[in-house]
Amino acid sequence: MLTGPAHAAGAAYVALGDSYSAGNGAGNYDSSSGSCHRSFSAYPYLWKKAHAPSSFADTSCSGAVTTDVTNNQLGPLNSSTGLVSLTIGGNDAGFADVMTTCVTGSDADCVNRVNQAESYAQNTLPARLDATYNAIRAKAPNAKVVVLGYPHMYTLNVFCVGLSNTKHTKIDEAADVLDSVIANRAAAHGFVFGDVRSAFKSHELCSGDGWLHSLVISPSWESYHPTATGHSSGYYPVLNANS
């Protein structure tokens, strides 16, 4: 892993990634970000406010997959970039469709769709992550790169109106598989993996703590994303501890 003064707090910081980086669900949206739904309450802006980096850019965007990061988000990176953060991979593996299937379908439908997503994560996603991570390193050779994972969605084995415990368990299993793949590839590139599952533990859906949205009718794109509290109490501390 690269070390040096460029990694100190206050270094130029660039945030990349998907809706979990952009802050879908956190409210306080930047109207200029359009359908990317970037939030001033998301963890990148919380880090910016706390550390006053010499420069800050946020190119994260709702719905992004690995190729979107590579093709559309790397413009602000350069040799002076000291810190890069991102969440990516969930959309590649079809996590939004997993949640839709599990909410609307049977237990068997949910299990089958999660199995498909896990197969993709294990067999196809690694090469996609490698290509994106290589592109980040090429553009920001001196940066510390913190790859943040995804939380479990549900606190298990508690009474919770809605999906069955079978579905809750299978959805959390999918997050474990996805995080394992991301952590493995991040380590292979000398990046830091920020595991948010421990931060969110006992604060997931069914806990009543309001760190995650369940199904949101309007705007629907906030569904199954961290709230402002999820960013400030979950994601931000993990980034801060690893940056």
UniProtKB/TrEMBL annotation:
PANTHER family: LIPASE 2, SGNH HYDROLASE-TYPE ESTERASE DOMAIN-CONTAINING PROTEIN. Residues 15-231 form the SGNH hydrolase-type esterase domain. It comes from the Bacteria. It is an enzyme of class 3 (hydrolase). It comes from Streptomyces caeni. GO terms for molecular function: hydrolase activity. InterPro entries: SEST-like, SGNH_hydro, SGNH_hydro_sf. Keywords: Hydrolase. Its EC number is 3.1.-.-. This is SGNH/GDSL hydrolase family protein.
